[in-house]
Amino acid sequence: MDKFRETFVTIAKLISSFMGGSDLLVEVEEEVSYHEPFPVLGVKPSDLVYYVSPKRANFSAVDGSSKSLISSGGIASVAAVAVTGISVPLRGIYPHFTGLRGLEMKAPFIALAPSTKGRNNVLLASLDYITLRSIDGTPLDASLGVSRVETELRSNLETEAISHAEGTPLLDGPLLPSYSSLPSEVRRELVRRRYRRLPKGAVGIVKRIDRSKLLVEALNPYAKELEARFGLSNVSFLSDEALVSNLVRRLAVPPFKPMAFGPVIYEPHGVRVYAYYLALPLHPHVRKFSIIRVESLTLREGIVDEVASLPLGTNGVPYPIAYADKVAREVRGGLVKALKLSLESFGIGVSYAGNMAVMTS
Question: Is the entire prediction scored with pTM above 0.70?
């Protein structure tokens, strides 16, 4: 703990001298455009739904967390990443000041975006764990906004951690996120790095599908067949979650078993991805399901059998993902708190920021 405190006091001293006494910039949003490729159904409509037979597999989950501090001097974003598993619950964290098992990585976990453009510091720029530049090589500054700085920092950490997964990497979110809020050059570089690290067997778990319409859109050409077979019209559903939930209510009978739907094929950033929807019963005799999307770079139905074998956390998400999220949040929380206290000891007034935070003086 002494080493941890000493390290952050040193970091805070460097940051305070770098960001202190700056003029405040207004946060602006850059106009970006990204269009999700049109999805298609990968099977006949008659083969859309099937039951799953859980089959054990060796997964390692990867998840990161980020948070920012803001002041009149700019934005200081902090991120952490965790890798968890089945046989070994915690495979490692980064950064690792706290005595927990660490990941041997050399990647920035702090990003500084000062409120004065063109500001630089040779010592800070030479440190592996701090970045002053965007993924595209341009200097960071507060006008880029909290969301962009955090997204770049966290995504880069998660990508670097993929190679530390043992067995099949299990990623929280899409295999290739849209990064739709980022400028095209930054988006391309993040995707290039991510794809280069992804093994063919990697699996993405998308737990929030209440705004996804991949399945709804893929089924549009088969509206008549769906109505005849299942008695429903997919065009009336606003999300994939609503569509799958309705199908589960109509088709599932106790004792409830895992059900799969798909795959849907779509091509984010020009890369073919196979997306399955998995309805996991929380109890064999209670009509309550957790619905997630399972993504793979290869067409293999067995992937849903393997994911279905994973225990579920209290939020209905496969436990390795839920645990990686919990650990990453806790580590990030400790880092941010330590940095905030250290900065305040040097006279820098800071406050916590969410993705939509506004700079304060």
Answer: yes
Residue 110 · residue 12 · CB < 8 Å: no
Q: How far is CA 307 from the centre of its chain?
A: 18
Identify the CA nearest to 265 among candidates 222, 218, 221: 218
Read off the pLDDT of each residue in 39-44 and give the average, rounded to a whole number: 95
Q: Which residues pair with 67 in a beta bridge?
A: 78
In 3D space, the residue among 347, 356, 328, 252 whose CA is nearest the CA of residue 66 turns out to be: 328
Strands (E), the chain: 40-41, 49-51, 59-71, 74-85, 90-94, 110-114, 130-131, 168-172, 203-206, 259-266, 273-283, 286-296, 351-353
Nearest-10 crossing angle of helices 2-19, 319-345? 60
Nearest to 191 by CA among 218, 215, 158, 214: 158
CB neighbour list of residue 130: distance below 8 Å, 6 or more residues apart? 11, 108, 110, 111, 112, 124
Between CA 336 and CA 225 the distance in angstroms is 53
Average pLDDT of the residues in 325-338: 93
Helix (H) or strand (E) segment spanning residue 218: helix 214-218
- Alpha-carbon span 205 to 304, nearest angstrom: 11
| pLDDT of 66 | 95
Q: Which of 303, 329, 328, 311 is nearest to 62 (CA)?
A: 328
Cβ contact 82:266 at 8 Å: no
For the segment 309-320, the average pLDDT, to the nearest whole number, is 92
10 Å CB burial of residue 180 (0-12, 13-18, 19+) is exposed
* Closest to 164 in 3D by CA, of 96, 80, 103, 109: 103
- The pair of structure tokens assigned to 55 is 């089959």
293 phi and psi, to 5 degrees? -105, 135
Between helix 184-197 and helix 146-161 the angle, nearest 10°, is 20
